[in-house]
Amino acid sequence: MTLFWTMAAGGLMGLGAYLLIRVFYHPKPGVASLVARIDAGQKSMRTSVLTDLEKAGDQATTWWQQIFEQVSDALESWAAERGWTLGGVGKDLAIMSQSVGGFLATSVFTGLFLFVLAPILWGLTQLFGVGLPGAIPVLVAMLLGLLGLAIPYLSLKQEAAKRRKDFRKVVGIFLDLVAMNLSGGRGLPEALLAAASVSEHWALVRVRQALANARLLGVSPWEALGELGEAIGVEELTDLAGALGLAANDGAKIRASLTARAETLRAKELSEVEGKEGERSQSMLLAQMLLSGGFLLFLAFPAVGQLMEL
C-alpha cells in the first residue's frame, strides 16, 4: 500500500511539473496572442478621474490588497501575452464586471492556501501520534490545491448564472420601454437610449454604456448591443441586435417585433418559475410522505412487536 501511495504521489508531481513547464513555456506568438497583447496594453493607457472618497480608499489599502493587485495585474498581462480568452469563463467575468487578473489571482492564492494547509494538518496528526505514510500528505496537498483552484471557478459560474438570469428579466422590460418610445414618435437610436436611461439598475447601466460607446465609436446601436450580448453570454440580447439590424428602417415592424419578443421572454420566465414551483411541490410531497410513513411505522411498531413475540 505504501508503494502504491508513493507511486501515485510521484505521478501527480510529475504531471504537475509537466503542466508547470507547459504554462511557463513561451510559444511563438500568433495573431490572437498579438491582438490580446494590444488589448492588454490599452488597459494601462486608460485614464480615470477619482473622487476624494476613492482616493482616500486607495490610500487606505492594506499591504495584502497591494500584493493582490500587483499579482492580478501581472497574471492578466501574462495571460494576454499567451492569448488566453478563457472561453465561457471570460463571459462570466464580463457579466460580473470582474477582471481576468483578479480571477486568476484569486484561484492561485486559494490553491496555494489549501496546498499549504495539508502539511499543517499532517504535522498536527504527527503531534497527536497518528502515523501516516509520507506519500499521503503529498497526495492530499495536490488534491486540496486542485480544489482551491476549482472553488473560485465554481463560485463564479453560480454567481454569473444568477446575474445572467437577472439580465434576461431586464431585457424583457427594456423591450417594452423601447416599443413605448417608438410609439411616441422617437427614432430607434433615441428610443434605445431613452429606454436604457429610466433606471440605474446595473443591467440598464451596462446597456446605456454600450449605447454611449457606440455613439462615440460611430457604430450602430444594435451592433453595440450585439457585442455586449456576445461578451456577457446573453443570447436574448444578441438576437435582439440581429432583429433590430434587419428591421431598422420600418418603425411599425420594429414595434411589433419588440412587443412579441417581450411577451416571449415573459412567457419563458413564467414557465421557468412554474417549473421550479412544481419541483418544490414534488419535494414537499415527498417529505410529507416520508413523515407520514415514519409516523405510521411508529404507531405500528408496538403492535408488530407483540405479534412477533406471540
UniProtKB/TrEMBL annotation:
For this protein, the record's InterPro entries field holds: T2SS_GspF_dom
Main subcellular location of this protein, as a coarse class: membrane
Descriptive protein name: Type II secretion system F family protein
Keywords carried by this UniProt record: Cell membrane, Membrane, Transmembrane, Transmembrane helix
Which positions fall inside the Type II secretion system protein GspF domain? 174-300
What is the membrane topology here? Answer: Multi-pass membrane protein
The protein's location, in the record's own words, is:
Cell membrane
**Bilayer-spanning residue ranges:** 6-25, 100-122, 134-156, 285-304
